Amino acid sequence: MARPKKIIDEDLISELSGLHCSIEEISRVVGVSPATLKRNYKPAINRGTDWLKTSLKRKQFKTAMQGNIKMLIWLGIQYLSQSNKKRRDDKLELTIIKKVVDFTKNSKKSDVRMLRQAQQPKKKKDVSRKSKVGSKD
Question: Model-level pTM?
């Protein structure tokens, strides 16, 4: 004689999946193995996961539209293929602009040299050590 079929609440599975519970956690709550849960209740699990993702996106967009700068930047990176790699260039540009402004205020010969130096890339110092004459290696 076969074991009686267990009645499982699919809404409970969807709700737990929507709370980001793992398959193992859901299986312990409803009393079936994780394999059975994956095999027989995949649509209910997906419904809960989809609800969670939609709710999170909705909240993120709402937060961004209320003026949260970090969320706006993050959403721009995720959905608009934007990046914040230009920060180094922006910083360099701001440094050059500051030097130009300083130059126009003071207009000394030393400022002209300073402006030219700011526009040129800095040279790296040679940090290699030369062995002393007569020393043993």
Answer: 0.52
Domain final position from 28, 53, 79: 79
Domain count, the chain: 2
CA 38 – CA 24 distance, rounded (Å): 10
Domain range for 31: 10-79
Q: Model confidence over 98-122: pLDDT tens digits?
A: 555 555 555 555 555 655 665 566 5
Quickly state the pLDDT bin for 3 (edges 50, 70, 90): confident
